[in-house]
Write a structure and sequence with these properties.
Layout: E1 2-7, H1 14-25, E2 28-31, H2 32-41, H3 45-55, H4 62-73, E3 81-85, H5 91-104, E4 110-115, H6 118-126, E5 128-131, E6 137-139, E7 159-160, H7 167-191, E8 194-198, H8 203-214
Parallel strand pairs: 1-3, 1-4, 2-3, 4-8
Antiparallel strand pairs: 5-6, 5-7
Helix pairs in contact: 1-8, 2-3, 2-4, 3-4, 4-5, 6-7
Organism: Lactobacillus psittaci DSM 15354
Keywords: ATP-binding, Cytoplasm, Kinase, Metal-binding, Nucleotide biosynthesis, Nucleotide-binding, Transferase, Zinc
Family: Belongs to the adenylate kinase family.
Length: about 220
């Protein structure tokens, strides 16, 4: 059984490695963004509660997010294990998650932090661009379209760079995220379930190192 959280700053490669983990171990990949969209579309009580905050432009309180996480983790597809993406973001949320996983008898087995130098992350994120039509993400260094100028997914020829992928914005975003990430790493270090993987290696090697940790479960 693998119940996993991946930690890492934006651009550290969490999305890439989580896809490979899901493929190998058939885990439920739980993204808080997807959870919110699904709960609001299905008009669940918690989804409607979250929507009432979002519609007013307010942040969804931790308690509501936690209820949503509990609702999602209660579903049967998580019985074989899960990866949580985007939650927890703070130690207060980590404590809430601990209560949830105790109640559901689905305790976390691993927290893996992908470690990447800030300068490398700035280069990676500044190199990111997206398809204007379908939103597919590419990178000038590590993930170019198979045919230059043509989106692999939808065939469009129009690309753009998000404002928050520009170097000066990226640096600020990383500093904000690091302030949130460091206490979480400390929290799980104290729990004895944190492992650190060098995220500056090739995606294959990052997965290999991550898999070596998970295969011990």
């Amino acid at each position: 059984m693998i119940n996993l959280i991946l930690l890492g700053l934006p651009g550290a490669g969490k999305g890439t490695v989580s896809e490979r983990i899901v493929d190998k171990y058939s885990l439920a990949h739980i993204s808080t963004g997807d959870m919110f969209r699904e709960a609001m579309a299905n008009k669940t009580p918690v989804g409607l509660e979250a929507k009432s905050y979002i519609d007013k432009g307010n942040l969804v309180p931790d308690e509501v997010t936690a209820k949503l996480v509990e609702e999602r983790l209660s579903q049967s597809d998580t019985n074989n294990g899960f990866i949580l993406d985007g939650f927890p973001r703070t130690t207060a949320q980590a404590e809430m998650l601990e209560d949830i996983t105790k109640r559901l008898k689905k305790p976390l087995t691993n927290v893996i932090a992908l470690d990447v130098d800030e300068g490398v992350l700035v280069d990676r994120l500044s190199a990111r661009f997206m398809c204007k039509s379908c939103g597919a993400t590419y990178n000038k260094f590590s993930k170019k379209p198979k045919v230059e100028g043509t989106c692999d997914r939808c065939g469009s020829h129009e690309f753009y760079q998000r404002e928050d992928d520009k170097p000066e914005v990226v640096k600020n975003r990383l500093q904000v995220n690091e302030k949130m990430n460091a206490p979480l790493r400390d929290f799980y270090q104290q729990k004895g379930i944190l492992s650190v993987v060098n995220g500056e290696q090739s995606p294959e090697k990052v997965f290999e190192d991550t898999d070596a940790i998970l295969s011990k479960n």
